[in-house]
Amino acid sequence: MKTLQFEAVKVALKQDKTGYVLTLSMHPDDIPEELLRDFVGARYQVVMVRLDGNDQPMTTNEYAGDKLVRAACILCRNPKFWSYLFEDAQIMEENESSATDWLRTYLNITTRAELKTNQHARDMLSKLFKEFDAWSQKN
After folding, report:
1. Is residue 51 classed as helix, strand or coil in its secondary structure?
2. Is the pTM value of this prediction over 0.85?
3. Mean pLDDT calculated for residue range 22-42
4. For the packed helices 119-138 and 96-107, what is the interaxial angle rounded to 10 degrees?
5. Does 7 or 59 have the greater pLDDT score?
6. Does the structure show a pLDDT above 80 at 54?
7. At what angle do helices 79-87 and 119-138 cross, to 10 degrees?
């Protein structure tokens, strides 16, 4: 059995009556000739690995880390989070800068990007989300 290997970029994902349709874009130099010759409707067993910025396979944990980086940024922009920290005397001014500085200190990181690889910081952030959510429910 011969396998086809090529790099592609996800362009679109849609759903029709038979399932999902994934559209990939490939550079003309990268497309295997066998793939061009196969008939439309040919079936394939597909194995895909997402690549990071260094063209290395990305793990599930890295993807989760990306989501937490975005969530941490959103949290620090939330005025209600500022109130939560201010009420607990964690910050002196209710603003994004104070919340961001506090969060980095609390998680023992220098940038929120470290959440991609620092499991301990991710665990602490998840705990903070739960505490903040509980506080938000009461206020």
Report:
1. strand
2. no
3. 91
4. 130
5. 7
6. no
7. 90
- Arithmetic mean of pLDDT, 99-114: 92
Q: Which amino acid is at 51?
A: L
Is 102 within 8 Å of 91 (Cβ atoms)?
yes
How buried is residue 39: exposed, middle or buried, by Cβ count under 10 Å (0-12/13-18/19+)? exposed
SS3 90: coil
* Unique residue bearing structure tokens 């009461």: 138
CA 9 to chain CA centroid, Å, is 17
- DSSP-derived letter for residue 57 is B
Residue with structure tokens 């989300």? 129
108, 112, 5, 113: which is closest to 53 by C-alpha? 113
